[in-house]
Specification:
Blueprint lengths: L6 E3 L2 E2 L5 E6 L5 E2 L3 E10 L7 E7 L7 H24 L6 E3 L3 E4 L11 E2 L12 E6 L5 E3 L13 H13 L4 E4 L2 E4 L4 E3 L3 E4 L10 H11 L34
């Protein structure tokens, strides 16, 4: 499984039912508060062979165990479930689709094919027994449409605000999908890394609970795609950190 890139993985089972392995670059092309993102390539016998991918790795100062990724995957899956319901509720020319990552474990000593990665000694970012995530690379101009603290891209993106509003309504005020980011294509919104606010704080470090929902509605301006959706009754709380463009985390508040 040689390659000109720096890091390689063992085989893992993708959502299309085929086994793949991936190689990815030594240097990240992007980073957030808690993670690095690396460009890579799928290899194997399935239809995704040769396609580009993204490998996401927690920074050293953050937990790198399966529980951290489990909530991320749950948020992506929940966002996709609600996107499918939105696509039935509101037939738009660009339906949203969320990328759902595959989780893999770093495993230097594996002697059999399993979910796992081979750590490369020249990088201190990735280590043995850590978990990383792989997802399809989204080509195109990457944009952020809203954040998880009430910031909204007002540059003509009616969809993001209306979709977030819809998810709150559809779940009877128990959840709200936000932090929408990705690429607006001709026939879809291809999205990644959503946040889901929930009353029970089920979705990890970007789930700000009821206060996160308040942040959304504090700045929300209904548009034509919101027609017929109710608003929260009563007073919406405000906090000083509302309206940040960057993703907010529970440990920062």
């Amino acid at each position: 499984m040689g390659s000109s890139q720096s890091n390689e993985t063992l085989e893992f089972l993708e959502k299309d039912g085929y086994y793949y392995w991936a190689d990815f670059e030594k240097t990240p092309f992007a980073e957030g508060v808690s993670r690095y993102a690396y460009k890579g390539t799928f290899h194997g016998q399935g239809p995704s062979r040769g396609d580009r991918c993204v490998v996401k790795v927690f920074k050293q100062t953050y937990a790198k165990h399966i529980t951290e990724w489990t909530t991320d995957i749950a948020a992506s899956k929940r966002a996709q479930e609600l996107a499918e319901q939105w696509n039935v509720y509101k037939s738009t020319t660009r339906p949203p689709r969320f990328r759902i990552p595959v989780i893999a474990k770093m495993d230097k000593l594996a002697t059999f094919y399993a979910l796992g990665f081979i750590p490369i000694s020249q990088t201190s970012v990735i280590g043995v027994n850590e978990y990383v995530a792989i997802e399809d690379f989204i080509t195109g101009d990457y944009e952020k449409f809203n954040s998880n603290s009430g910031w909204v891209n007002r540059n003509g993106h009616l969809f993001a605000s209306a979709f977030s509003h819809y998810t709150w309504h559809k779940t009877n005020g128990r959840e709200l999908v936000c932090d929408l980011q990705g690429v607006r294509k001709g026939d879809s919104y291809e999205l990644t890394d959503p946040a889901v606010h929930s009353l029970n704080r089920l979705y990890g470090m970007t789930d700000l609970g009821q206060l996160g929902m308040d942040a959304f509605f504090y700045s929300h301006q209904c548009n034509e795609l919101c027609y017929g959706l109710p608003l929260p009754a009563g007073h919406v709380r405000h906090a000083a950190w509302f309206g940040q463009r960057n993703t907010s985390y529970t440990f920062e508040l």
